[in-house]
Amino acid sequence: MNESEFNQKVDDTLFEVEEVLDDAETDLDFMNNGGVLTVICENQTQVIFTRQTPVKQLWLAARSGGFHFDFNGKTWVRDSDGALLNDVLTEIFSAQAGEKFSFDL
Fold first, then answer.
1. Cα–Cα distances in Å, from 59 out to 25, 65, 88, 98?
2. What is the DSSP string of 32-68?
3. Beta bridge partners of 66
4. Number of structural domains, the chain?
5. Which of 40, 55, 63, 76 could in theory staple to 69 by disulfide, Cβ–Cβ 3.0 to 4.6 A?
6. Is residue 75 part of a domain?
């Protein structure tokens, strides 16, 4: 994947995350600024997505830690253990926002 394709994939992914969060029952604020998506939960905890173009990774910071994801041609997988971004996001938002979301990224 070249840099342009990577950036488009991240943009598409962040847009899809925003679409899911738009339907939240809980009060979530989010802003996308320069490829950084910051989600602020009702309890003021944050989930932050950042693109890391040089290494072609999507990074995720949450209360439970920092995670790095690679795109394998089909989906985003955590580099440390192969966990799917969809599953990790479901866990993170369940813990931080108290709501279970279904992601299909």
1. 26, 11, 12, 22
2. EETTEEEEE-TTS-EEEEEEEGGGTEEEEEETTEEEE
3. 61
4. 1
5. 76
6. yes
Tell me how far apart the alpha carbons of residues 74 and 77 are, in angstroms, rounded to a whole number: 9
83 assigned to some structural domain = yes
| Other Cβ atoms within 10 Å of 5 Cβ, number | 11
Q: What is the pLDDT of residues 15-35, one digit of tens each?
A: 999 999 998 888 899 999 988
Q: Domain for residue 105, yes or no? A: no
Backbone phi, psi, residue 99, to 5°:
-135, 140
Assess if residue 103 is contained within a domain.
Answer: no
Alpha-carbon distance of 49 to 68, in angstroms, equals 10
Quote the pLDDT of residue 63: 96
